[in-house]
Amino acid sequence: MDKLLEVKDLKTYFYTDDGIVKAVDGVNFSVESGKTIGIVGESGCGKSITAMSILRLIPDPPGKIVNGEIFFNGKDLTKVSDEEIRHIRGNDISMIFQEPMTSLNPVFTVGDQIMEALILHQKLSEEEARKKAIQMIKLVGIPRADKIVDEYPHQLSGGMRQRVMIAMALSCQPKLLIADEPTTALDVTIQAQILELMNELKNKLNTSIMLITHDLGVVAEMSDHVIVMYSGKVVEDAPVEELFKNPRHPYTIGLMNSIPSLIGEGKRLESIKGAVPNPLYLPKGCYFHPRCKFATDECRNGQPELREIASGHKVSCFRAEEVGR
Amino acid sequence: MSEAILEVKNLKKHFPIYKGAFRRKVGDVKAVDGISFKLKAGETLGLVGESGCGKSTTGRTILKLLDPTEGSVKYKDKDVLNAPKDEMLKLRREMQIVFQDPYSSLNPRMTVSQIVGEALIEHKLYKKGKELDEYITEVITRCGLAKYHMNRYPHEFSGGQRQRIGIARALALNPSFIVADEPVSALDVSIQSQVINLLTDLQKERGISYLFISHDLGVVKYISHRIGVMYLGNLVELSEKNALFDNPKHPYTQALLSAIPIPDPTKKINRILLKGDIPSPANPPSGCKFHTRCRYAKDICKEQVPEFRDLGGEHFVACHFAK
């Protein structure tokens, strides 16, 4: 398969007054063209920072990509010039953010904001860009596109704003769409509309999608491949069917067992005890061991490597062979 | 199950809209527009619906945190909405609320023991001192916190722990009814399950009734005995949870349930996609409020408000065509 994006041993650290936060610490994964990869994990596990590192949107200082390579179409994005990365952002790779209200500019109309990228990257004239913007608004299923184009973000509902974000992100026909919790702020019926729309556009335009979410339901439905992150590291990496049928990392298993609809009636939810560790004071050994019921002395002292236990299924756990759901 | 302890009848809450220099009233936002239900002792009633459907307003109006426009709320045969002050004070002890946002619902300048103990002192159940401290310790330990947490401030806790403080505050007065307004929505999944387990354990131990408000249908199905579905300020369906999930009668419920993503990649669901957004509650559609998005809508739906009727087995639906 041809890999559109390949992330190799990415490390993004934040140098704060209190110490170094290893937000992303040696992450490896790749995205094939036309496929969707799901990145799952709880708040603070580094999933958004991974996405922002790809587009070099990490505020520096305090953040810095200290190691690793990010190959996109054969080019290493960590090494290209600022001008080149600006050309890639919004053109070859675009991003949808979680909160559509804070990521749209309140003082410009929806049309202006979609047109900006078109004029900048595609070198369209204002008139052409406006036509294209209206066309994109129609494409994402917003009625009265020729009126909406002149409205401001506050005049739209949450679902509509997220559609505008998608229209904006897709206007230049990017090869990779990074969607960071695109439906978390939305109601389920609207979420269903947005996911459907993303899938439709993926098939129509052959865009690859990197979907960041904490909702295992959304992941199961959208992705071809899934990686699970915990405290800045990838703990499990597998094709979607394999991951749900045969999860091997105790954290992944714990996540699945804490979802009511996967557990069934009357059974007690199994919760993962404790909370995500403070990134400034990570435990010794496997980062998950204080919360893991399978932990042994080996886990308390050594850090497990991500290793392949079945074809295409990688886990970082010493006891992956013994644990199961 | 036993008698109803809470009875809500035709409850309405309209928020006026003012406009212009003279603050003339130009209309109403009909947040809750006539809902009725009963809640039994030891039962959990789940209330679901999309944002803006009035589920939180319902919860708050029942507790008289908001003054209702119309309707009645009876708690153990006492009229909550017209209770005199001293009676209301007693009722407040029995009816508590847990809020959604564990960050803004705790006073940042108060310690855990002050937060949990405030109501106890206010209701003159305890005086400051050793006894109170012991009781607070007991309550917070039950909620999964430790004694050494007592003198800490909310900012020192994680989201899940803060939600436990919120639950401990509600629990301290030993209530028999708690409105849980999206208590787990702001939490990560692994933490969510800890809080859900705590709520169900407390119910088993003390027979507390919950009005559990949430937009997460998976959680609601897990925790509730019966579920009510709201749309634009009205209940459109109310039933025992399995009857509702296995055999939803209202077209809105059907669409809502089919929209839940299933965490199983091998299953493909037949999704009913709703068109458009929820209409504004300031200017709701005539007749059945759902007719603008309903795929079965006929002329009668535009004109007549459907009755909320029992289809048998206490399965209530507000739709002209439901059978």
Gap from first CA to last CA of chain A: 31 Å
- Write down the CATH class of the largest domain in chain A: Alpha Beta
Please give the domain count of chain B. Answer: 1
Helix/strand-derived category of chain A reads alpha/beta
At the first level of CATH, what is the class of chain B?
Alpha Beta
| Number of continuous helical runs of chain A | 13
Strands of the biggest beta sheet of chain B: in what spatial order?
A: 6-7-8-3-9-10-12-11
Q: Oligomeric state of the chains?
A: heterodimer
Largest sheet of chain A: 8 strands, mixed
Q: Structural class from helices and strands of chain B?
A: alpha/beta
What's the mean pLDDT score of chain B?
89
Widest sheet, order of strands of chain A: 6-7-8-3-9-10-12-11
Tell me the radius of gyration of chain A: 21 Å
Overall morphology of chain A: globular
> What is the number of independent domains of chain A?
2
Binned, the helix content of chain A reads: 25-40%
In angstroms, what is the radius of gyration of chain B?
A: 21 Å
Number of strands of chain A: 12
Helix-residue proportion of chain B: 25-40%
What is the CATH topology of chain B? Rossmann fold
Q: Would you give an account of this structure?
A:
The complex is a heterodimer of chains A (325) and B (323). Chain A has helices at 47-54, 82-88, 100-103, 110-121, 126-139, 145-148, 158-170, 188-205, 216-222, 240-245, 250-257, 260-263, 297-301; strands at residues 3-16, 19-32, 36-40, 63-72, 75-76, 93-96, 176-180, 208-213, 225-230, 233-239, 307-310, 313-315. Chain A is an alpha/beta fold. Chain A folds into 2 domains: 3-230, P-loop containing nucleotide triphosphate hydrolases (Rossmann fold, 3-Layer(aba) Sandwich), CATH 3.40.50; 247-315, no CATH class. In chain A, strands 6-7-8-3-9-10-12-11 form an 8-stranded mixed beta sheet, sandwiched between helices. A 4-stranded antiparallel beta sheet of chain A has the order 2-1-4-5. In chain A, a hairpin with a 2-residue loop joins strand 1 (3-16) and strand 2. The radius of gyration of chain A is 21 Å and the shape is globular. The two termini of chain A are 31 Å apart. The model of chain A has no long low-confidence stretch (mean pLDDT 87). Chain B is of the alpha/beta class. Chain B has a single domain, classed as P-loop containing nucleotide triphosphate hydrolases (Rossmann fold). Helices cover 31% and strands 24% of the residues of chain B. Chain B has an 8-stranded mixed beta sheet, with helices on both faces. In chain B, strands 2-1-4-5 form a 4-stranded antiparallel beta sheet. In chain B, strand 9 (226-231) and strand 10 (234-240) form a beta hairpin. In chain B, helix 3 packs across helix 4 (130-142), helix 3 (112-122) runs parallel beside helix 5 (159-171) and helix 5 runs parallel beside helix 6. The longest helix of chain B is centred in the middle third of the chain and has 18 residues, at 189-206. Chain B starts with a strand and ends in a 6-residue tail after the last strand. The model of chain B has no long low-confidence stretch (mean pLDDT 89). The A-B interface holds A 42-43, 143, 157-160, 187-193, 195-196, 214-221, 223, 240-241, 244-245, 254-263, 265, 268-273, 275-276 and B 50-51, 158, 160-161, 188-194, 196-197, 215, 217-219, 221-223, 255-256, 258-266, 271, 273-274, 276-278.
